[in-house]
Each structure stands twice: as structure tokens, then as C-alpha cells.
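ok so I'm stuck.
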Amino acid sequence: MANSIPKKNSFFGGAAILTAGIIIVKLIGALYKIPLGNIISDTAFADFNTAYYIYSLLIIISTGGLPVALSKMVSEANALGRGNQVKKTFHLALIAFCTLGVICCLVMFLFPNQLAALMNNSHSAPSILALAPALFFICPMSALRGYFQGHSLMTPTAVSQIIEALCKLVIGLALAAFLVSNGAEDSYAAAGAIFGVSVGCALGALYMYFCYRRQRQAIPVSNDRPTRSKEILSTLIKLAVPITLASSVIAIANLLDTSITFGQLQDAAGFTEDQARALKGVYDKALTLYNLPSAFMTPLTISVIPAVSAARAVKNHRLGAQVSETALRTTALIAIPAGVGLSVLGEPIIRLLYPTTDVELAGWMLSVLGIASIFVCFMLICNSILQAHHMVAIPMVTTIIGCVSKVILTFFLVGNPGLNIRGGSISTLVCFGLIAVMDLIIIKFALPRSLSYIRAFLKPVVSAAIMGLATWAVYGLVSRLFTSEAGELSGTGNALATLVAIGVGVIIYFVLILVTHAISREDLTLMPKGDKIAKLLRIR
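replied:
not stuck anymore, here's the structure
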């Protein structure tokens, strides 16, 4: 039938491999940063992350929208059987990518001290230098990823991402451990840890090149006449620039936020540069855990856009609103308990994973950031819903408003001696809370069919609140069993109490969402194997 809507989880067909790859990469990233935080000091961890923020912005500038634009152009030309157009588009894009990669690589390679000074952290220069080669390799690799995605071939991209992550894990941790054990300075230990990223990008690019050589031989000969180079480049730029601008907002905010944090800790709060580095390192360790819940939003954000777009194409606004509401409820079911868990068990989790850091300070910040992580997840899914309804400019506007508020709040709160680095977690909470609330209000009033937020959020919120109270109580009871007469809790005792509390919390939450019917078959169909899961759990 012409107006039939494809089954929602069928949209995972083209993206399933890529989604699985992204989740694996995120998990490897967690396995990398958590032990890394115990190998290198807090100051070295701050140096590492300072360089990474610079690198992240330059990646977006050099590759932000081009892979998407390239994949779109390749896909369109491929669908029309224009093989020569595909080849010419890719070759021009590859030249553009490589040019940008060389420029950005030279910026980091030639001016590491100047970039470190701009960030108010002079010790981050070795890490900036160690990351420079990564920019050279990631640009052609991004071009190759766009090329393969344009042919609907997701496996090369997923495998290259896993290669990158594994190199970062194995080589980065090995170099960091070697340098620390040989008494290297903190800044050089951080550089060793981050050099694994450069090696990973080089090997990932090499793998993509061999995939391209194999795939190129299978392309049939075509007789089409390709478009002029000027027109191809013009189209690439027109498609890429808006995406790059939208993607760069948060990266720029993170860069400014880091520079302001170091500056205010030293100038207003009165800390030395080394003390500021140590405090920022503690904050970055809390940030590592705060980023985990949003990693699991990828399947939802990938599936929502085509599902809503398909409903809109046949003017079925009711189905479009239904899919959007289901996506929001599914996000609530995942994000709210994860954020509540991080908030309630902030200090115990830090003590378990980063016992050598300032546990009390990092735990306080993780408790605040746990709530912030909920809003980050809602921001991501709201962006997908708005984009699916052709409101592509709104997410950029709301993100700019939120990020500007973050930078301003960071300046005043971190500069307050009573708060200092704690102000960073508060500004993060306000930033993403503001973005998520604005997005939700816009979605409520701008969609053709209204959504019920009570239906979407009430049961997950109540279930997560009960789970949070139970988790807090269980941790308190179990930890008392391992607390000495002097009032000290052993590391083993904290680990057992934390794991038991998490286990009990998961069971209680799972039972509550089933008893309250907070999750439905429609919610599960947005997920891979959703129908089978619904049948197994007897959910109708």
C-alpha cells in the first residue's frame, strides 16, 4: 500500500551495525577512562581532557558536516546509477578533507604552547602535541566513512570506530602506566595516554583505505557525465556548514568553559595552576561517569527520525505524535533511573571507581551531574524529534541559549571561593536543564498533535523516585555492616554495599515499571528485538 508505514524497528536494519558499533565504542571508552583515572594523577587527567576539548572542536570544524553531506550526495548519485558522479564527488571531498586535516594538524603541532596558554593550563601542551597526528588521519577516514555510508555500507565505519577505541584503550593505558612507573611528569603521562588516540586514528584510516580499495573494484563501469567540480564543492559546503555550526556549539562551549574554569580557579578563587589542574581533574572524573547514560540514547535517536518522517510523509500526524511520545517515554524509562542512581550513589560510586581521588568532592559533583545527565538524554531525543518535524534550526538556538548560560554561570560560580570547582557541575545542570525544558515546551505546542507529558513521564518518575529511596536505604544498611568502630568504611565494604544497592535498585525499578505498566509494546518496538522482548515479558 502506498501510504503504509514501515514497522518502526525496521529502521534499525540500515543503522543496527553502526548503532552496535557506537555502543561498543562507548563501553570501551568507559573501560579506558576509568582505569586511566586511577593510573594518572588528577592533574594529569585535567591535562588530558584540556587537550581533548581542543581536539574535539578542531574535529568538528574539519569533519563536522562533511561526512553527512558526502554520504547524502553519494547516496543520491548511486541511486541514479551515476557511478562517475560518485567517484568525482568522493575524490573532491577527499581533497577537501585532507586539506582541512593538514591545516588543523599543523595548528596543534606548531602552536601547542599557545593553545595551552589560551586554555589557562600550560601543562596541557605535551598532550596537545601528542594529539596532532590524530587530526591528520581522522579527516581522510571521515571522508571514507561518508563514502561507505552513502553506499549503505555501515560495517567499515563501525569496525574502524572499534579499532580506534581499542588502540586508545590498549596503547593509551600501556603508555600511561609505563610513563608513570618510570617517574615521568604528570603532563607527559597524560600525553602518553592520549597518544593512543593518534595511533587508533592512523590504524582506523588504514583499515578504511583497504576497505575502499576492495569495494572500488566491485563498482560497475558507468558512462554518466559528472557535474562540474565547482558545483559539487558548492553543494558539499551548503550541506555541511549548517551541520558543522550546529555540532560546534557544545564543543565551543566546552572549550570556553574549560578555559574559564582554569582562569577563575586561579584568578578569583586563589588557587595555583597545579591546584587548579587537580581540581579540574577531579571534576573530569565525575564527568566521565555523567556521560555514560547518554551513550545509550543512540538507538533511539537513530530510529526516531525515519519513523516520524515516514508518518509525516503520509500526513499521519497522529502516528507522528505517538512515535514522538513513545520515544520520550522510552528515554524517561532509561535516563531517569540512571541519573537518579548516579545522584543517590554519587560518593559510593566515586569511591568504588576512583578511590585515589578526592572522593567527597567528586561524589558531590557526580550527585549534581547525575540529574544533569537526565536532561542531556532528553535534549538528544528532543533534537531528533524536532529535526524529524523539519524544525532543524530550533535545537541549535536552544543549545546556544543553554551554552551561553553555562559559560556565564561558570565564570561567576567557579570564581566563588566557597564553591570553586563545584560551580562547574551546577552550571552544567542549569545548561542542559534549560535546553531540555525549552525543547519540551516547543515540542508540546509546535507539533500538529499534542503529546501527553503526564502519560510519558509520570510512571517513570515515580518508579525512579522509589528506586532511588530504596537504593539509598540499602546502601546505608549494608555499609554499616562493614563500618569499623572508628567510623571508617573499607574499600571492600563500600564496593559490596554499592553493588548490592545497585542490584536491589535495578530489581525494584524493573518490577515497578512492569506493575505500573510504565512500558508498553509500542515503547519496545523502538528497540532492536522489541517484539520478542515484549512477548518474553508478556507485555501487551
